Each structure stands twice: as structure tokens, then as C-alpha cells.
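so my prof wants the structure for this chain in the C-alpha cells format not the other one, which i didnt know existed until like an hour ago. anyway here's the sequence
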Amino acid sequence: MGFLLEEQRCAGWGRRLRHILRRFGSAREGATAVEFGFIAVPFIGLLFAIFETAFVFFTTEGLEAAVADAARTIMTGQVQASTITNATQFRDQMICNPTAPRRRILPSFIDCSQVVIDVRQATDFTSADMSRTFYTNPAMSYAPGGGGCIVIVRAAYPMPVYFPILTTTGIMTAGQVSYNGGMKHMLIGTAAFRNEPFPGSLPSC
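here's what i got, hopefully its the right format
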């Protein structure tokens, strides 16, 4: 008799348990919130990575456009005929100055004091130094050359990482370098050209 009662009690608990599981399986209240909780972190991380990448591309385009316009002032001899004698003056007057000859300046959100400039001559285009690590040299080189010279103009801008969590979590690490004690997007703008034959008293190559 006791055995039958115990068996009935277990069967009753089994029915209740199956009923609870069926109710849980068919319930949909709050399912969206639970599902979003599972994907929220990777989704937000991906969203931040898209914004950061887009901003990197936009800033790179601005840097390259400014370098191209500033390089033309070397190619046409305007810089050689001016009072500019070093890379810092070239950066401040031809890349960052709103009254520069071609009036193409860096985007306002770029800190121009952080831009590293390298201007040097090359014997030919095949042997021109196009490396991307020139910014590790603390002294900025400046050799605009004379008429007919081959000149390479490079500018590097250590753009801050605006969402550091992307680096620490490993979502976005490509293209970042350690610079001045922190991780940066090192953006590079380059122009390679041969100077025009300058008229008058300007130097020749």
C-alpha cells in the first residue's frame, strides 16, 4: 500500500514537472530581451569598430589631400623661394596654415602639432625611401631639392584610438601601433614627384 502511494506521488511530481517545462518552453514573454542580452556586447563592439574604421578612413583622406597640395608647393618651387628652412615650418605654413597658397588644410580635428613631416630627395623613383616607420626618428628631415630633383614628401599622424575597449578586447587591433606611450592609428600620407625646372635664381638638381 505504501509503495503504491509513493509511486502515485512520484507520478504526480512528474506530471507537474512536465507541465512546468511545457509552460516554460511555450512562454515568449521577455524572449527578445534575453536574446539581445546574448548578442549585445558583440553587436555594440562591432558598431564601435565600424565607426572607428570609418573615421580612420576619413582622416586618412584628409591627411593625404593636405600632403598632396603641400607637396605641389615644393614641386613648383614656391617653398624653395620662400623663407621655409625646416620641416616644422613647412608643416605649420603649408599644411596647417589656412592661408597657405592652395588653401588645403588638415581637417580641424587633427592636432597639427602631432603631425610628423619627412621631406627628402631620391636619386630615382625605384630607390626612393617609401618606408612607413620614418616617424620613429625624432628629427624631421627636410630636403625639398632643386629643379628636376625627385622628392618624397611623407606625413604621419598618430590618431588616437577613440574606443580603447576595441583594442583591449581584441575586436580591432589591425593597423594600430604603440606610439608615445599609447596605442595609435598611425596614418600616413605620401607624395612622390619630380620638381619642375625652376625659373630664374632657384636651385637646380
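also thought this was worth mentioning. The first strand starts at residue 116 and ends at 122.
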